[in-house]
TrEMBL record:
Protein name stated in the entry: Tryptophan-rich sensory protein
Keyword list, A-Z: Membrane, Transmembrane, Transmembrane helix
Transmembrane portions of the chain: 25-51, 71-91, 103-120, 126-145, 165-184, 196-216, 223-241, 253-273
Keyword Metal-binding: no
UniProt entry tagged with the keyword Chloroplast: no
Domain of life where this protein originates: Bacteria
């Protein structure tokens, strides 16, 4: 009689291997170290805050697309999600889970890249930080695509993987644009023909379009699509707030970012509802 745990169906579990056990341990330990390192490096546990690193290039007043300081509180939620993922993937019953096999190492890579990004920024290498955050976006997109190829998971697993990755990717999409703007400004590149207001408006629109695109692609996985939209909306909304007050007021960018924030959350929501109506 064949062993029912051995199957080629990607949605079912096979017997765990030694590689599975190694992955569980390394991802769990690596996640704790990466999150702890990121908290220390970002100034959350003492030391120089990111806003003060690189001569303040990433502060809320550095560029017209810099989110207000409260926006960065989303990292607390993302870090909790990443720790939850590390715990869930380490459970005995998840060793051979297809989902954890598919994304475990990639999620760990995203955490390590985040820690590296913080170190690079603290060293003042802004263009290096652009390269690192671009790599982080690519890794998170890989995780997203791998999750979409697998059947729906148990609720706990879905929250730990899909919600966490969705929030992570949505926020990083906005952070990447702000990071590029900070590097250009610090390099005194200038307005590149459009000026700060023009480019701020363009970047806000680009961010919204990217998020809507992700939402449409992930429409059949509501947890991912909605999490991406909510995180991006959060970041864009805080850009709007920051440009409406303080030392760097820009009403045009504030309006563009506010509209983009609404589009970022409404677009994926509509995509999810359409996907559900089509499926029914």
């Amino acid at each position: 009689m064949s062993d029912p745990t051995r199957t080629t169906d990607p949605g079912r579990t096979t017997d765990p291997t030694r590689a599975d056990r190694v992955r569980q341990v390394v991802v769990a330990v690596g996640a704790v170290l990466a999150v702890a390192g990121a908290a220390i490096g970002s100034g959350a546990a003492g030391g120089q805050p990111i806003a003060q690193a690189a001569d303040g290039a990433l502060s809320a007043e550095a560029t017209v697309v810099a989110p207000g300081s409260p926006a960065f509180s989303i990292w607390s939620v993302i870090y909790v999600g990443l720790v939850l993922f590390a715990v869930v993937q380490a459970l005995p019953g998840r060793a051979a889970d297809p989902r954890m096999r598919a994304v475990g190492w990639w999620v760990l890579a995203s955490m390590l890249l985040n820690a590296v990004w913080i170190g690079v920024v603290q060293a003042g290498w802004l263009w290096g930080s652009v390269v690192v955050i671009a790599c982080l976006v690519v890794v998170l997109c890989v995780v997203l695509l791998r999750l979409l190829r697998l059947p729906s998971a148990r609720v706990l697993d879905a929250v730990a993987s899909e919600v966490t990755v969705g929030l992570y990717l949505g926020w990083v999409c906005v952070a990447t644009l702000a990071n590029v703007a900070a590097a250009l400004t610090a390099s005194e590149v200038g307005g590149l023909g459009l000026g700060a207001t023009g480019w701020g408006t363009v970047l806000a629109v680009v961010a919204a379009l990217i998020v809507v695109g992700v939402g449409v692609r992930a429409a059949r996985r509501p947890m991912i699509a909605l999490a991406v939209g909510l995180a991006a909306c959060w970041g864009l909304a805080w850009i709007a707030v920051a440009r409406s007050q303080g030392p760097l007021v820009d009403q045009t960018v504030a309006l563009a970012a506010g509209v983009a924030a609404a589009v970022a959350v409404v677009g994926p929501t509509v995509a999810v509802l359409r996907a559900r109506s089509t499926a029914s």
